[in-house]
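Example 9 (inverse folding). The structure is encoded as follows.
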């Protein structure tokens, strides 16, 4: 960790860049015009440093001070960067939420975190008043991008007024603004999980966590000062200025990347000759499809890109292959595994990933690569009980599937106001640090590479009543007379087998109750809807392929679903809980 042992603030990196490369580009924000042209707002490091100092002073003058919590709901913009760095400089704790989580979850997040202040665009502030977000705790309101009329609607101070307060205070000061330094493990930010795999939880971030992530981006990903990043994800875009890298923000809805216009992103890359891209799998596929041409000479090329980082969900091999046609031959897509609670954990380049397809298609899970520097990954037995103290005897040997547990300086130590969730997901080690139970299952191979086999909650512990051929050798036989057997099925290994069929777009393993017993069922989303005759052939193919693999033997039930429910941001995380309810209602034994 590069921060001192007694104090930390990631804004020190911005101060360093402002001193040593003041005129270098820090942020550029694109705005598409109706005539097809683009406008760009730009800040260099010196100006971003000054503006965030001024806003930090203004926040303090307005009464939002160190230790207070402030919701930040501002779209990626110049103001977003200035405000976020101002909050960190002032020691104010930003609360960051994903607007795509839905109104009900947003209200719960605000009730749980009890913010002292609300900083948002006009739309967010009007929603706050109408829906009573944070009504019992919010005493200070800042509106971004408004005017006199919106001030009446939102009931707060406008950002330009806040900045004026900072300018007036600064004029009376004899010295430059001094940022607040916190203890390395002191609460610096609250980042709420998206809720795509459960109820959103507030993840406590410290400056030492941010420092650990910055170190990883420098060392493992090789990001250097002077680079330019196409920033499609707000949180990652903040790391740009902290790394001495310019963040180029395209005109898109960051909460719904699948809706992005590829032309806007290509234009931003070309204008600024971006060297780095951070994209989620859904956007990766969308850009790849947009860039492909009928002939080689029509293929769009991203010649300036030196590195592509993909995270959020596993990217498909086909989408990586199509996207990679736009890249130079020596450039890879770096697939990263992690979670809000610990990111990144491991990484694998696209060329190495291509070499694992046979294992994945035969049910070996998805390879997510070697752990990055400073991250320790262990696999433990799968169970739901809390584990208070870490013991090395908990670790399973190589090639045995279990729950993934990680330890590093990038691991959040607790959830905000969620004591039970903290107890359930953290294990204290001998040094008093917490290891994080990822809630994912997988295994480490003989070379130490990590393979993902799905969410722990998505496994199906089934009781099967089948003939001996269908049962396979996994699981424990319960009754030799009735040939009942318990068997555990994992989502990714099972689904990838069925996904190899040409007609299958994607599949999802769920459990349903039949005659009082849990049995596995595969929901199938097809490339196109079958007719009566092809439906029978499809069922025969699904049943046949299930019998060919040890880990899918015993799966005999299939249902066709027209359109899987998936998360808004990644368009890849399947809501299997919803499919399970649907399948239970549909199935007639």
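The amino acid assigned to each position is listed next.
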């Amino acid at each position: 960790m590069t921060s001192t042992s007694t104090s930390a603030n990631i804004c020190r990196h911005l101060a360093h860049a402002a001193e040593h490369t003041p005129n270098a580009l820090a942020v550029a924000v694109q705005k598409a015009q109706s005539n097809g042209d683009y406008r760009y707002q730009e800040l260099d490091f010196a100006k971003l440093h000054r503006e965030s100092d001024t806003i930090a002073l203004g926040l303090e003058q307005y009464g939002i001070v160190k230790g207070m919590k402030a919701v930040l709901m501002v779209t990626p913009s110049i103001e977003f960067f200035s405000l976020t760095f101002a909050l960190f400089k002032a020691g104010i704790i930003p609360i960051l939420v994903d607007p795509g989580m839905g109104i009900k979850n947003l209200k719960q997040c605000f009730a749980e975190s009890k913010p002292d202040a609300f900083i948002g665009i006009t739309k967010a502030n009007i929603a706050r008043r109408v829906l009573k977000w944070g009504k019992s705790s919010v005493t200070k309101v800042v509106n971004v991008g408004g005017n006199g009329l919106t001030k009446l609607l939102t009931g707060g101070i406008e950002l330009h007024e806040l900045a004026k307060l900072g300018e007036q205070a600064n004029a009376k000061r004899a010295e430059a603004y001094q940022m607040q330094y916190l203890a390395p493990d002191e609460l610096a930010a609250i980042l709420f999980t998206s809720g795509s795999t459960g109820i959103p939880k507030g993840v406590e971030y410290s400056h030492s966590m941010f420092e650990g992530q910055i170190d990883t981006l420098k060392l493992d990903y090789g990001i250097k000062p002077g680079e330019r990043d196409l920033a499609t994800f707000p949180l990652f875009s903040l790391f740009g200025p902290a790394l001495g890298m310019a963040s180029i923000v395209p005109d898109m809805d960051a909460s719904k990347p699948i809706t992005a216009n590829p032309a806007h992103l290509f234009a931003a890359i070309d204008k600024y000759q971006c060297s780095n891209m951070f994209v989620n799998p859904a956007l990766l596929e969308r850009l790849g499809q947009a860039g492909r041409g009928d002939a080689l000479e029509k293929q769009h090329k991203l010649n300036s890109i030196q590195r592509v980082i993909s995270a959020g969900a596993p990217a498909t091999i086909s989408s990586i292959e199509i996207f990679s046609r736009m890249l130079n031959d020596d450039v890879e897509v770096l697939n990263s595994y992690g979670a809000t609670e610990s990111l990144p954990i491991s990484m694998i380049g696209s060329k190495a990933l291509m070499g694992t397809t046979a294992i994945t298609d035969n049910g070996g899970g998805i390879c997510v690569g070697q752990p990055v520097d400073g991250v320790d990954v262990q696999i433990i037995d799968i169970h739901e009980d809390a584990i208070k103290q870490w013991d090395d005897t908990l670790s399973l040997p190589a090639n045995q599937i279990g729950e993934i547990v990680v330890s590093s300086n990038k691991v959040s130590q607790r959830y905000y106001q969620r004591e039970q969730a903290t107890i359930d997901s953290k294990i204290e080690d001998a040094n008093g640090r917490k290891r994080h139970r990822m809630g994912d299952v997988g295994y480490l191979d003989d070379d130490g590479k990590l393979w993902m086999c799905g969410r722990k909650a998505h496994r199906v512990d089934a009781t099967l009543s089948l003939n001996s051929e269908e049962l396979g050798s996994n699981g424990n036989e319960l009754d030799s007379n009735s040939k009942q057997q318990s068997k555990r099925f994992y989502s990714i290994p099972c689904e990838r087998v069925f996904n190899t069929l040409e007609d299958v777009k994607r599949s999802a393993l769920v459990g349903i109750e039949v005659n009082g017993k849990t049995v596995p069922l595969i929901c199938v989303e097809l490339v196109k809807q079958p007719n009566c005759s092809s439906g029978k052939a499809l069922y025969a193919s699904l049943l046949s392929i299930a019998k060919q693999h040890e880990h899918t033997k015993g799966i005999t039930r299939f249902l066709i679903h027209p359109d899987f429910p998936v998360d808004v941001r990644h368009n890849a995380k399947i809501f299997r809980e919803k499919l399970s309810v649907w399948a239970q209602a549909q199935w007639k034994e």
